[in-house]
Amino acid sequence: MALTALGVYIGTVLWSMRISVSSSRIFPRDDFVGLSQYQRLFETERWHVSVQNLAVFGVLFVAACLVLGLLLAVLLDQHVRGEGVLRTVFLYPYAVSFVATGLVWQWMLNPELGIQSTVRALGFPDFKFDWIVQQDQVIYTIVIAAVWQASGVVMAVLLAGLRGVDESLWHAARVDGVPRWRYYLSIVLPQLGPAIGTSFVLLAVGVVKVFDVVVAMTQGGPGNASEVPAKFIMDNLFGRANVGLASAASTVMLLTVLALLTPWWYARAVQAKKARHS
Questions:
Q1: pLDDT reported for residue 77
Q2: What distance in Å separates the CA atoms of residue 245 and residue 239, rounded to the nearest whole number?
Q3: The predicted structure's pLDDT at residue 43
Q4: SS3 for 21?
Q5: Which of 20, 178, 242, 243 is within CB 3.0–4.6 Å of 173 for a Cys-Cys bond?
Q6: Alpha helices of the chain — where are they, by DSSP H?
Q7: 277 pLDDT more than 80
């Protein structure tokens, strides 16, 4: 496994970074052109559109998953009847591939087949829900599908954090007359920092590499309205035979992931160091 990690993962990353500073097109070239591929990348309008879409998707996706996951975790923390079944139901979408999720939501959001058609057939002919074919709204349909799939795993992580909170705090809060919502907001939520941080990192990495659900739902359309960086990279790598530009884009995305992970790694290292000295 160590040899696999070094040879396949690290080796291919270094190879991609090397290709990104060459003039490679259809085939790799062993020359050096500096940062010209990166200059071309940032001058490409399609790349700017994909980054903007990723920013919108990322903010909405992470925020919605954290909020919905927390609400579901709080619900299950009440020791409701059938908790095991509910936990399985909420977590099950995460076991489904993004391709399957994208196809199902594509059918549901199709104006001619899905929710809009069904509601109109029930006697509401003016009902309209055609976001998936609207350039200014299609990215929100991808957010809906992705949140449906990923909020369950956030629920599981936060529920584990909730179960680690001392129950005596709730008993003390009840004695003091603290309402339940204030207890979770002021006492429990600050103690969920590590669980929220872990969930944020998982979601943020998922945002950077989002690809399958976009291809399954919209193929990046209409036009380039739902284009994302991962699809931009794959299209240039295989469809447009532009290895150098695709490598430059993938290197930019790698640096983005490292920028997201480095503060988390540092915080964990600091926390572990404090734990050893305490």
A1: 85
A2: 12
A3: 93
A4: coil
A5: 178
A6: 2-4, 11-19, 36-42, 45-76, 83-95, 98-109, 115-121, 138-163, 168-175, 180-183, 189-191, 193-208, 212-217, 229-234, 243-277
A7: no
Average pLDDT over residues 132-145: 93
User: pLDDT by residue (tens digit) across 15-33?
Assistant: 999 999 999 888 888 889 9
**Cα distance between residue 45 and residue 27, in whole Å:** 24
Torsion angle (degrees, nearest 10) of CA 213, 215, 218, 224: 120
The DSSP secondary structure of 40-84, one letter per residue, reads HHHT-HHHHHHHHHHHHHHHHHHHHHHHHHHHHHHHHTT--TTHH
Contacts of 141 (CB under 8 A, 6+ apart): 105, 109, 131, 132, 217, 218
pTM of the model: 0.88
Q: Tokens 């549901």 — which residue?
A: 108
The span from the CA of 134 to the CA of 138, in Å, is: 6
Whether the predicted pLDDT of 5 surpasses 80: no
Kindly provide the b/e burial profile for residues 93-118, where b requires at least 16 CB atoms within 10 angstroms of the residue's own CB: bbeeebeebbebbbebbebeebebee
What's the one-letter identity of residue 255? L
DSSP secondary structure letters along 79-109: --TTHHHHHHHHHHHHHS-HHHHHHHHHHHH
Over 70: is that where the pLDDT of 278 sits? no
Say which residue the tokens 């909170």 belong to: 165
pLDDT of residue 218: 92
Residue with tokens 């058609």: 117
Q: How far is CA 177 from the centre of its chain?
A: 39
Comparing 8 with 35, the larger pLDDT belongs to 35
> What is d(CA 224, CA 50) in angstroms, rounded to the nearest whole number?
8
147: number of Cβ within 10 Å: 21
Does 17 or 262 have the greater pLDDT score?
17
